[in-house]
Amino acid sequence: MYLNNHSLHQLDDAYLDSLESGELRGLSKRLLADLKEARERLNQNPNNSSRPPSSRTPWERAEAAASREAVEREPGEPEEPVKKQAKEVVSPEEGKESLPAIPPVETKPSAAAPARKPGKQPGAPGVGRTQVFEPNAIIEHYPACCAGCGRAVEATGGTAYTAFQEVDLRWGEAECPGLGVWVTHHRYHEVICPCGHHTRETPGRGEVDALLAGVELSEWRLVGPLLATLMVALSLRFRLSRARIREFLHDWLGLDLSVGTIHQTLHEAAAAVAPAEEELIEAVRASELLHADETSWPEGGALLWLWIFVSATTTLYYIAGRGKELVTNVLAGFSGWLMTDGWFSYRDYPRRLRCWAHLLRKAQGLSESYHREARAFGKEVLTTLETSMAAVYAAREGPPGDLTSSHEQQLANLRAACERMQGHSHAQTHALAVELLNDWEAIFQVLRHPELPLTNNDAERPLRHWVIARQLSHGSRTAVGSRVTALLVSVIDTCRQRGHSPWPYLKTAIADRRAGRTLPPLPPAPLPTP
Fold first, then answer.
1. What is the full DSSP assignment across 332-383?
2. Nearest-CA neighbor of 15 among 198, 199, 197?
3. Is the whole model's pTM more than 0.85, yes or no?
């Protein structure tokens, strides 16, 4: 919005008559843009936006409930139950005349006690901040131009109409390294333009991803960008809970912050880096080799999955279901090699590789089985895979070439054994045989291309950190919390993968996005050595 309430209160006929034609046209354009944006916001509802159903007004909720009842009502069923008329009371003795009907007694419902409103009750003592900071610096904020006529105004004079304090950290100098608390007092001024309009400078605001409902990006924050970055590091790299972060800040930095403030700050940091998701997806799709894996992740009462996609320079996380929809959307247009496990969601990609570590473990388990045929089949699979691995490692030391011809007979024997073991009474034997046959081409692609990897370790190693975090936190509670985790850890792991510390970038991202500026690009990957 170009004009806030303070500016609109000053617009009247006399002020409009005092403007030149060019200034009036500029004001008209700003008013038209504000009107369109206000009308679009007014027309938003749970059916055409991300607003929750609870945002409906009471009469809209009643209409929605009535429409649902009309849809759910059986054909021919009356809208309201027919009121039963008062019947005559007949004596059980024959021959006696009927007693007159007893009229129904009208009863009034007892006055129900008014529902208790949520939150602080009238008259209850309030709770506010008791910690007082002495500012290290004072920054004056003046408007750059008049909100009415658009001409530049001087960044002096005026009247300060509001202020707030920002608590942040500062990196120490080379001769005195470390972190220190730094408090800045921000004052915002109102300036009178020669045209007579009063213009106020306001804190910056940033746009927020629609999937992060309830999160705001604004410069009006107690927690500064570097302090917010420290909270992200404590939460996601060191796996501290909100309460433990609060304890750390109190004991080590002398800051008394609420758990709610810490929680809000973490969500705001994710909203700041949300635009980087498109950059990460493009990097993943453009990669020549991609590793993908997934692990379970609870979200409230549902069981979801934490997906990871790792290329040479990018790591991308998602928390979603385990179906094919996510893989299809993320990898749309991807044409490189895809290294995965045996999950069926990946089977549509022709240039696919299978992780041999899973197959080796399963074959090793069968080779130690007490079932004679299962033990023999497991040993045959294990011998074939180990022989092929030795040939791949040897080929990497010499000139590249196709190894399938030299292992043709061994592979034919293994395939015949897999076909025989389909439907075997030993469940593990049948499962391994079917798995080998389903992914035959993906498993033995490395014999044609020995330079390709044999395992999916590049994706499994980063997941170990989050498996430990899942054990401690039991996942996330809401969809917003899941998205906050996925966005932040994608940026953190990508920066580290590219040889950069993620914290300076995250600090800059939070500061720029709070001010309404665009998100800076992620740090570049190092150039390959010649």
1. TT--SEEEE-S-GGGTT-SSEEE-HHHHHHHHHHHHT-SSHHHHHHHHHHHH
2. 197
3. no
